[in-house]
Amino acid sequence: MAFELKNVIPWGRSFQDYLEMFALTPEELELSILDCAGGPASFNVEMKRLGYRVISCDPVYQFSAPEINQRIQETYSTVIEQLHQNQDNYVWENIKSPEHLGELRIAAMQQFLEDFPLGKAEERYLTAELPHLPFNSQQFDLALCSHLLFTYSQQLSEDFHLESVLELCRIAREVRIFPLVDLAGNLSPFLSPVISNLQQQGWTLEIEPVPYEYQKGGNQMLRVFQPAQKPVGAS
For every residue of 176-232, which 3-state class applies, written as one string? Predict the structure, then answer.
């Protein structure tokens, strides 16, 4: 059976994952970045250690670190079990097995949990959720959204996807969304209508390959930016 989840779960990825998922360059790390729906990823804290500042937002940040950890533990075995049942849908190269993936994700999420109280006090972690974000227009150079839009196509509607992408476009000069496949590994049915709708509104959209692939076929990101300007990574 295909990988299935009833709800969005807390599941965090690392700094290196972000670099590969979004094809981030060293120059782009210096930009004003929003990690939208960041969940318990270690991207924020690892960026801080390197001297950069990222704002992460997610509704899960309304909870305490112990409460988030409890939710992680409650969903961990479900994820690993489903990975075992659907191993043919994944690329087992850098990641050797479902258990190896679990170790990598837990390591990243543990870094987040240790940083979360300080990061929340420093306002690096803000409670907010799509499709309405509490940020000013064009406040960020770059908005990243990983494993929410298109991933949860069975749980979130087409209207939610469109409203969310437009909201990200409102608050950032460029938006990058990864991956473009759903939990079952199929190209999201909402990708084409979202692209068509935004193109009609004057946005420029590009689908680009990235060096990250864990789900088979899940190695592309969507870039959205205003047509009058170059993408933030362009020279």
Answer: EEECCECCCCCECCCHHHHHHHHHHCCCEEEEEECCCCCECCCCEEEEEECCCCCCC
Look up the pTM and report it. 0.92
Residue 56 maps to which CATH number? Answer: 3.40.50.150
Two structure tokens written together for 213: 């692939």
What kind and span of H or E run contains 41?
none
Distance of CA 28 to the CA centre of its chain: 17
Quick: pLDDT tens for 95-123.
Answer: 999 999 899 999 999 999 999 999 999 99
Print the domain residue range for 181.
20-225
116 Cβ contact list (under 8 Å, min separation 6): 40, 61, 65, 68, 125
